[in-house]
Amino acid sequence: MRSKGAGFRWLGLACGLLVLAIAAERLEWAGALRSWGQPERDFYWLAGDPRDPRPVAFFAVRDFGLRERPESAVAEVLGDQDYILSVNGERVGSNRYRAGADLDRYEVARWLRPGENRIVLELRSATAAGGYSFRLADGQGRDLLAEAPPWQVHKSYFRALFPGGTAPPAPEAALVGHAPVGRWGLPRPGPIRPTFEDLLAVPRVVPAVRYRQDSSAWHRLRTKGRRRESLGPRVEFDFGAPVTGYLQLEVRGREAATGLLRFSLSPGIAEPGPIHALATMIPQRGLWQDAVVRRFRYVDVLGLDGVTGAGVLPMVDDSLEALGGADESEGLLGLPAPPLRAPVEDVIRRELEGDAGLALGESR
Q: Considering the chain, what percentage of its residues have pLDDT values greater than 90?
């Protein structure tokens, strides 16, 4: 009979082999980093319990100085779930994370300047869990943020955020880990992506033409004049024709709030259908922009009380392919896209009782 001592020795040997395997895997990752010529990558997020099911949205801000503007400067960014990147007050690009995604890369030298500069990432997640990574390098690969102060987390909008004025005191972003980490692994740099400026169809936001509440009659959407009233927690906007671009919502309210969005090429606020996105407002912001370019005509906004208007930042039709956007007319293989099942969706469903089940579309 095998002794207990022998059993413990075998167990110790197995544990030792496991430790060696883990170490070898980490060395393999480190070797991969060196072979690809990639720098080390840090992932950050706001401090808190990642198990919290409530959605979050915040600004990650980093100021840095430059002696002169570089001829080339490439921003590499990954934001899980959504990010919108701004450089010195100019919106550059945005995206939604997909499993195994590459790092998004943008050429941003045109927006840099000698002296003080500011990077702002608007970050969102359907729950408290998430992460982002960002690097800015010149044409020789030098890290332009190497000597910059740490990332700051701002949970509400302030007037000097984008112009680059003095920011109020804020906590530092929490370090999640060094790549490879979490579900992001070791993301590789992708191709240079076009910026908003590169693909704009017209240099202005195009407002929706009309709206209706619940299944009532359509009304012309007023875009000028006196202070507009909130349109209620269930409103459908019509842009008059199919549009390709980024949805923008004007929302009144000083508190954080979340709504559900459904995009379509045909009207149907009273018809069942999948939820395509969440709109999570940052307090004091007043404006929400989608992180994904889409093609749609109608958008249903559900559960967001303070909505006063909607518009679209119009992009050329080719932007869907160039940016990997979403055409809401159909899902994979021509089938409807699967419904979003973030925990907050069930909360909003319960708040919109009565005929809300019909309007939102119940999962069967």
A: 62
